[in-house]
Amino acid sequence: MKPAPFRYEKPRSLEQALTLLAAEGEEAKVLAGGQSLVPLMNFRLARPAVLVDINGLAELSHLRRDGSRLRIGALTRHAVLEESPLVERHWPLLTEAVRLVGHPQIRNAGTVGGSLAHADPTAELPVALAALDATFVVRSLSGVREMQWSEFFVGQLQTSLEPDELLVEAVVPALPPGTGCRFDEFSRRHGDFALAGCAVTVSLGPGGVCARTSIALLGAAPTPIRATRAEAELVGRPVTAESAARSAAHAVQDLHPTSDLHASGGYRRGLIESLVARSLLTARDRAREGAPS
Ligand SMILES: Cc1cc2nc3c(=O)[nH]c(=O)nc-3n(C[C@H](O)[C@H](O)[C@H](O)COP(=O)(O)OP(=O)(O)OC[C@H]3O[C@@H](n4cnc5c(N)ncnc54)[C@H](O)[C@@H]3O)c2cc1C
User: Which atom of ligand 1 is nearest to the CA of 36?
Assistant: First the structure.
């Protein structure tokens, strides 16, 4: 199918883009890589009256270290994140996650901001950024808002972005020394959206016990979620096959993933439990081998 008719605008500055969004309100949609929005428009599941194409806004394409933090501009392509030596060295969880996004063609066009704003519960980057405690910076004509990842994602394909707001960047704190990470997922075919997955970090303290961990889940709920009880349970203990299995069991205890054509909720729950147990051990081994600096 073809999209319903729309007006096309390509602002030349962030100010112009924000002015358009403020003027058009609910009628407008931001166009980034188009990898999710254009199919939705072709199926007429989205019918924006105005498309605001932000691809001319070079100021949103940055990927840089700022002190100990990483700043990822909303227009950064998945492929740029994937190929960044800076990211691979200091935030390897993001490299591992982005390599699982679709196919190279999708990663050449798709953007980090688009993936976050689309808020698909089976998308990799929202879950990886949840594990990394990222914050998101949002702009409108009335100013700047910075929010935790958990305030940004509010439901399946829903964020707390207002119609006049543009996501401008994600800010990722440094991982503590002695941290290992793992992103793992299961999909039926290479490049398909995953049925379930997880992003895990393990920071080892003195004596090799777990000093800090984050366990973020994919496909478990309408938004990315953290298994906070399972995290707390592991802190202060050595990460062994037994403790990892116990944490994984806690992680899925109160989960009710949805059933659909692709998998039942029970199957997804079992997948998540196995993936978390395995990922905690891999993250522990990577922490022992040498952590991001
Ligand atoms: C065949 C195929 C396979 C795919 N497989 C995967 C996969 O395995 N994993 C995965 O995570 N994704 C997958 N995707 C989706 C892909 O990653 C998209 O790139 C991503 O979801 C959206 O990014 P985009 O830049 O293309 O955004 P667009 O499609 O341009 O926009 C998506 C939504 O975000 C809004 N938006 C975009 N940028 C901003 C911004 N800066 N501020 C506010 N709102 C904004 C748009 O208005 C729209 O509502 C797949 C896509 C295809 C076509």
Answer: 29
The pLDDT confidence band at residue 194, using thresholds 50, 70 and 90, is very high
126 C-beta closer than 6 A to ligand 1: no
30 lines ligand 1 (CB under 6 A): yes
Tell me the CA distances in angstroms from 24 to 7, 19, 289, one per residue in order: 11, 9, 53
Rounded mean pLDDT of 137-159? 97
Res 75 pLDDT > 60? yes
Question: Average pLDDT in the 60-66 region?
Answer: 97
Residue 166 has pLDDT above 70, yes or no: yes
pLDDT at position 190 is 85
**Of residues 141, 135, 151, 139, the one with CA closest to residue 66:** 135
User: Which of 6, 10, 36, 162 to mutate for ligand 1's pocket (most ligand atoms within 8 Å of CB)?
Assistant: 36
Query: Assign residue 67 a region: left if phi > 0, alpha if psi is -120 to 50, beta otherwise?
Result: left
Closest ligand 1 atom to 74 CA: 41
Q: Is 161 in the pocket of ligand 1 (CB under 6 A)?
A: yes
Residue 187: strand, helix, or coil: coil
Number of the ligand 1 atom closest to the C-alpha atom of 40: 29
pLDDT digits (tens, 9 = 90+) for 97-127: 999 999 999 999 999 999 999 999 999 999 9
Residue 283 tokens, joined:
């993250």
Element (H, E) at 268: helix 265-289
Average pLDDT over the chain, rounded to an integer = 96
CA 97, chain centre distance (Å): 8
Two tokens, residue 15: 């100010």
